[in-house]
Write a structure and sequence with these properties.
Oligomer: single chain
Structural class: alpha/beta
Number of helices: 10
Bound molecules: adenine
Strand order of the largest sheet: 2-1-6-5-7
Strand content: 15-25%
Shape: elongated
Radius of gyration: 21 Å
Order of helices and strands: EHHEEEHEHEHEHHEEHHH
Amino acid sequence: MRIDIITVEPELIRSPFENSMMKRAIEKKLAEVHFHNLREYGLGNYRQVDDYQFGGGAGMVLMIQPIAKCIEKLQLERQYDEIIYMTPDAKTLNQATANSLSLKKNIIILTGHYKGVDQRVRDKYITKEISIGDYVLTGGELAAAVLCDAVIRLIPGVLGDETSALTDSFQDNLLSPPVYTRPSEYDNMKVPDILLSGNFPKIEEWRADKAYERTKKIRPDLLDES
Ligand code: ADE
């Protein structure tokens, strides 16, 4: 999978890709990530990328021309399955979206900044808009890193244990059950006997019950969705 990220702050977003799971995925050539500094496509000597909004109001807006130039250059090189815009005024990212994006070959992610992008960018180029939650970040860079993490870990071969992504919270609209490791007793708190029993069918049953219990208590809305 190839991901092209268009941003005015490439340095802000680089680090998550240089560590841990995303670094490994890139090293194993299961994911390829390229950063494009929007400023290199900016207008005039000052490489202008933003301007005041028509109609007045605080905050600058990213202009269409630099974004168009960058996207169209990439589109000449290959076909993209999705051109995604990270923005708080969109549907919230969930596991189903991450699953479906992990099957794509080439995607572009555009990150907004300031007040966002000129609406005409969204109308002309964007095929999918994604928010990572009902709060406003300074820019879409961290949101793009979150999206990439959620997607890249699902690519077969990225996680050491193939089954672990499948048993994540949300894969079946349930939160994960509690997990324990050694010691089996700490400060009078004991690991549930069933987990030490070696009875794997019963353990699976216990986990399913706990997952349901936890979901019902913390995120009952997920049960309505399934
Ligand atoms: N840009 C700013 N806030 C955001 C959010 N919550 N999700 C995605 N992109 C954003």
